[in-house]
Structure formats: C-alpha cells, structure tokens
Write a structure and sequence with these properties.
By secondary structure, the chain is α/β, with parallel strands linked by helices. The protein is built from 9 helices and 12 strands. The strands form 4 sheets. The protein has a 6-stranded mixed β-sheet with strand order 7-6-3-8-9-12, with helices on both faces. Strands 1-2 form a two-stranded antiparallel ribbon. It is elongated. It starts with a helix and ends with a helix.
Length: 287
C-alpha cells in the first residue's frame, strides 16, 4: 500500500469514526469514565451549607475564622488503546477482516477521548510489544495512531495478552482508561489482568467472526494456522473433529468472560457483521 492509498484510507476511517464519536460516543464516553478524582483548587471562607469535612483547620486557626478547601473534579484522562495485531486478526469472511473492525473501534474511541481533551496512547502487540506510542493529545496524534493501525506489519503472528498487560503496568503508572481489543483466542492472562485492573479502568473488546465459532462440514481441507503458519489436513466431515474445535473455541470465549469478570474489568463482544456502535453504547450505558 503506497502513501497516497494509506492517506486515503486514513481519511475514510477518520470521516466515519469522527462522525460516530461526535454524535454518539462523546456524551456516553464522558459520563461513563470519571476523572481520576478530586484535585485541590483553592481555600475560601466557610459559607453556610458547606461541608464541615472540608474545613482547612490550619488556615482556620491562622485567620481565626473557618475556611474550607475547594476541590474540582479532575476530568482530564489518559486513554490507552491496546490492540492485538497477531495473525488471527487478519481472518475474515464475506463481512470483512477483524482487523478492519478493530481499527474502526480504536479510531472511534480515540476521537471520543479527543472530544474530552484527553491523552491517547497506543500499544500494538502480538506475543511481544510491536509498537508503543506514548499518550498525547490532538487530532494529528490520533491520525498517526490510525495510520499505524492500518499499515503496521507485525514481526510476530502469535498472541500473548499477558505480556501486553505486563508492559502496560510498566509504562503507565497513573490510572488510565484502557481498551484491550483482541479476538482473545488465548488464555493465561488472568494474573496480569488482575494487576492492571487494580490500577486502571480496563475494558476487553472481543472482536470475532461467526465462521470462527463453528467448523463447516466441507470434507478434507488443508487448514492454515494464522499464528504459527503451519498447515494441517483436517477432516471437517468428522463430527468429533468439529465438536473438538467448537469446545476449544468455546473454552477461550468462556475464559475471556469469566476472567474479565473476576478481575473487575469490563467486557464487550462484537461480531464483525454486527454493529459495534450498538454494542459499545449498550456497554457504556450499563456502567
């Protein structure tokens, strides 16, 4: 993909996702995610009806009349987008690739954060950290993130969610709004998620294709593992083979749901042929 084509695609995604974030997500995002707490603003004289718990006793003693501390909600947030760029994200059927939907979701969330004047950072991961863009404000920064999501070519095709979460905990010390976007066809990340969710507001967004849920009965087929690159002759006509595959897939989905719930993190699942807008809005409103 040449530079002109990339810029054209960036612009197309910007127009679509900017409209969504402006008219749909901005309000929901603002109300769903609160600031990091209350920050000190000033000290003023006590007025009737003020909360006595806010009295500044040092200033009160100095001036011999009651004064209180005034606080403001700290609305500026940091959003971290953690995006799985492993080989399985390139899977797609007639409804498009998972990677395209993942890019749209990430871009929509980034523009929603920009509406709130928040910082946005990006972590692209496979079974290693492929790219880290530190949090920063501004439209040009968001466009850079979108460009990376479109054109980035990972070194590895495997997945390790635990490694990505460990990296997050190392680089992001202050509380952040974290969207971890993946198909989550993996396990072994409960411990690192538990640590990350204690400090950050984490939401897992599972993007999947309906063809992944069940193996079609089409006889003997050479199948390629997108993450290992290995091919294997599979008898899809065998009921036990199909059932074994379905159990493997269902186990991964169940692990995702139960793990995020146990760790106190949010979870959303959206199929590539469904409206991720409806799914995310439903999630925001339920918070």
């Amino acid at each position: 993909m040449d530079t002109k084509e990339i810029l054209k695609k960036v612009r197309k995604i910007e127009i679509k996702t900017r409209r969504l974030s402006d008219h749909i997500f901005s309000g929901e995002y603002h109300t769903s995610f609160k600031g990091r707490g209350m920050t000190f603003s000033e000290v003023r004289q006590y007025q009737f009806g003020d909360d006595v718990r806010a009295i500044d006793w040092n200033v009160t003693a100095r001036y011999n009349e009651p004064h209180i501390k005034v606080f403001e909600e700290e609305r500026e947030l940091t959003m971290m987008l953690m995006v799985d760029v492993s080989g399985s994200e390139s899977f797609g059927t007639q409804n498009g690739f998972k990677k395209d939907i993942v890019t749209e979701i990430a871009a929509t969330m980034a523009f929603s954060a920009t509406q709130n004047n928040d910082k946005i950072g990006l972590i692209l991961f496979s079974d290693e950290i492929e790219l880290f863009i530190p949090p920063k404000k501004g439209k040009s920064h968001v466009l850079r993130i979108i460009r990376e999501l479109i054109e980035f070519h990972p070194k590895s095709k495997k997945t390790d969610v635990a490694q990505a979460l460990k990296f997050l905990s190392g680089v992001q010390k202050k509380k952040a709004i974290v969207f971890l976007i993946s198909d989550f066809i993996t396990e072994g990340y409960e411990h690192t998620l538990k640590i990350a969710a204690k400090r950050h507001d984490v939401t897992g967004v599972r993007v999947y294709d309906h063809r992944e849920q069940q193996m079609p009965n089409i006889g003997m087929v050479n199948m390629l593992d997108a993450e290992t690159g290995a091919t294997q002759l599979v008898n899809t006509g065998s009921k036990s083979v199909r059932m074994q595959y379905e159990k493997y897939y269902d186990d991964k989905v169940q692990y995702f749901k139960e793990t995020f719930s146990r760790c106190g993190a949010g979870a959303v699942s959206t199929r590539v042929d469904e409206s991720y807008v409806t799914k995310l809005l439903g999630y925001f409103k339920a918070r």
